[in-house]
Amino acid sequence: xxxxxxxxxxxxxxxxTIDARASAMRNKHVQGVLATFADDAVxxxxxxxxxxxxxxxxxxGWFASWSGPVGYELRGLKIKTGGDVAYCHTLSRITGLRTDxxxxxxxxxxxxxxxxxxxxxxxxxxxxxVPLYMDGSVRAAFDLTPDDRAATGQGEGGGVDRx
Length: 163
Hints:
By secondary structure, this protein is α/β, with parallel strands linked by helices. It has helices at 8-26, 30-34, 55-64, 149-152, and strands at 2-4, 37-44, 71-82, 85-97, 103-117, 120-129, 144-146, 160-162. The chain has one domain (2-154): Roll (Nuclear Transport Factor 2, Chain: A).
């Protein structure tokens, strides 16, 4: 994890919030995930609808579509803070077996905005996305994976390789 402009205590608390969410995601624990969000949090997720939808209903249904634990990892988490607000961005990966027998292995981008509320860092906004191929096909680039910085010479987070 890399941080910029963050106090060590804030950094540790923010990391604990993100880690708690990740653990709850892996264990398909709806209330554990929800406990990391502010009551009025906004979320823009990979799945439909285009606008925010109710967290609890969507999350429970999504967890039910997995046959076992959800593989969930974060790579290159960056944190910036200023007073009682913070934002983080990372490359994330979801893996595992779905109830329909399909294997999921997807890298995507996640951005978290947090606010210190009553002494706790809580997620107030989450945004998930995948890039689009700009070749006229307007296809989501689900086949991308992070590459080694040295392989592209583009610096951290600059390049991707197709699977």
